Here is the input.
Amino acid sequence: MRKIIRLVFCGALYLMVPYMVMAQDNPNEIAVIAKRFDFLPRKIEVKRGQLVKIYLTSIDVAHGFAIDAFGINQKVEKGKLRIIDFVPDKVGEFEIRCSIFCGAGHGRMKSKLIVAGYQDITASELKAALEKDDFFLLDVHIPEQKHIEGTDAFIPYNEIEKYIDKLFKNKDTKIVVYCRTGSMSSEASRTLLRLGYKKVYNLLGGIKAWE
Here is the structure.
């Protein structure tokens, strides 16, 4: 049985290779593999208002792919490919679940969709924007590091909610957030959106891209 499963799994990967390559070029195109009792990857991150394409395949039995918040419920057969496209219109974290009974662990076959409302800004775009000086530049990396010249404040990414309103209460303030690689700043950007700030930008690649 192990040999059979391994062969099926390799076949599914072969089927997905072109879509995995495309996904590297477009973060809104995601290759997803369904198997008892898991979805891989376990977390999908996309942007609000942008077209998302899910390239879904199953390596063992028929599975369902449901995101109730967006009215998505699609079936994929073993070894087949299902393409699901949609435009997320809500920001937040949403459950992805298997909607077809697939065995004893069916209830725990879940993953997460994270829809961000912030925009990415490249290092070159930020350098050009610094000349206008019409935004607030915020470093959120911990431990504290060397700041980009022109940085207005440093707040650890996990303390944004505690301190941000001490700097300004205007939710229309344009804020550019950065860290070392872009990971902590992505989380900080989601927090700012949840707090109601409307113009949030994340430095793509962080200081590593800036240098």
In short: Confidence is low (pLDDT under 50) at residues 1-9. DSSP finds five helices and 14 strands in the chain. Residues 2-25 form the longest helix (24 residues).
